[in-house]
Amino acid sequence: QVQLVESGGGLVQVGGSLRLSCVLSGRTFSMYTMGWFRQAPGKEREFVAAINWKFSTSYSDSVKGRFTISRDNAKNTVYLQMNNLTPEDTAVHYCAAGMVNMKSYDYPYWGQGTQVTVSS
């Protein structure tokens, strides 16, 4: 059974940075597309970024140029480096895994989420 555990969220000031991590266990990490999504209070879950097994990446327009997704197959871990954070980035951020298209919402496996709060 696949398990995803996120870490790295927290409270940061506007313009600050955070790095989220997500560790996958239970399957062969290198074969999966890994995605990050987020959900703010009162809003629907939205795509943030993804990286596939070929290390190709995709980003939402709202984070392009500020966020970087990467993966370390030796550590079964995907990262989301978030720079120049704004209050609009405040949300619960979720890690997802699956053999899906990068921007799909049909990832079969999801983590429990980690809170990111950007204060002004």
Per DSSP E runs of 2 or more residues, the count of β-strands stands at 11
Please compute the radius of gyration using only Cα atoms. Answer: 13 Å
Largest sheet: 7 strands, mixed
* Helix-residue proportion: under 10%
> Low-confidence stretches at least 5 residues in length (pLDDT < 50)?
none
Distance between the termini: 40 Å
The ordered H/E elements are EEEEEEEEEEE
Please tally the helical runs, counting DSSP H or I stretches of 4 or more residues.
0
Q: Give the averaged pLDDT, no decimals.
A: 96
Q: Work out the strand percent.
A: over 45%
Shape designation: globular
Structure classification: mainly beta
Question: How would you describe the overall organization of this protein?
Answer:
- With 120 residues, this protein is mainly beta.
- Helix content is 0%, strand content 51%.
- The protein is built from no helices and 11 strands.
- It has strands at residues 3-7, 10-13, 18-25, 33-39, 46-51, 57-59, 67-72, 77-82, 91-98, 109-110, 114-119.
- The mean pLDDT is 96.
